[in-house]
Amino acid sequence: MARVIVDVMLKPEILDPQGQAIVGACGRLGFPGVTQVRQGKRFVVEIDGEADDAKLAEVRKLAETLLANPVIEDFELHAE
């Protein structure tokens, strides 16, 4: 069994209100050096067999159709 990590982040040009709220809280909580935060999602997908090119292509299609909104989000795959 293999694991594929799918990290999903908002595209840089998309406003991230949750990230902005975290930056605001950082100063109040004693972390004044934090100037930007972008929030995202991480999915751990377990697949049968090895994470070969065909299996990674399947997980990429899964990410494109279900895990990420390609209009506003980018994603990366990392096989473990």
UniProtKB/TrEMBL annotation:
| Matching SUPFAM superfamilies | PurS-like
Keyword Cytoplasm on entry: yes
Q: Which InterPro entries does the UniProt entry name for this protein?
A: PurS, PurS-like_sf
GO cellular component terms listed in the entry, alphabetical order: cytoplasm
Q: Which UniProt keywords apply?
A: ATP-binding, Cytoplasm, Ligase, Nucleotide-binding, Purine biosynthesis
Where is the protein found, in the record's own terms? Answer: Cytoplasm
Give the EC number: 6.3.5.3
| GO MF annotation terms | ATP binding; phosphoribosylformylglycinamidine synthase activity
Query: Which terms does the UniProt entry file under GO BP?
Result: 'de novo' IMP biosynthetic process
Q: Which reaction does it catalyse?
A: N(2)-formyl-N(1)-(5-phospho-beta-D-ribosyl)glycinamide + L-glutamine + ATP + H2O = 2-formamido-N(1)-(5-O-phospho-beta-D-ribosyl)acetamidine + L-glutamate + ADP + phosphate + H(+)
Per the record, the pathway is: Purine metabolism; IMP biosynthesis via de novo pathway; 5-amino-1-(5-phospho-D-ribosyl)imidazole from N(2)-formyl-N(1)-(5-phospho-D-ribosyl)glycinamide: step 1/2
What Pfam families does this protein map onto? Answer: PurS
- Source domain of life is Bacteria
Q: What Gene3D superfamilies does this protein map onto? A: Phosphoribosylformylglycinamidine synthase subunit PurS
Family under the similarity heading: Belongs to the PurS family.
Complexes and interactors: Part of the FGAM synthase complex composed of 1 PurL, 1 PurQ and 2 PurS subunits.
Q: What does this protein do?
A: Part of the phosphoribosylformylglycinamidine synthase complex involved in the purines biosynthetic pathway. Catalyzes the ATP-dependent conversion of formylglycinamide ribonucleotide (FGAR) and glutamine to yield formylglycinamidine ribonucleotide (FGAM) and glutamate. The FGAM synthase complex is composed of three subunits. PurQ produces an ammonia molecule by converting glutamine to glutamate. PurL transfers the ammonia molecule to FGAR to form FGAM in an ATP-dependent manner.
The record's listing under NCBIfam families reads: phosphoribosylformylglycinamidine synthase subunit PurS, PRK05974.1
Q: What is this protein called?
A: Phosphoribosylformylglycinamidine synthase subunit PurS
Query: What is the originating organism of this protein?
Result: Nocardiopsis ansamitocini
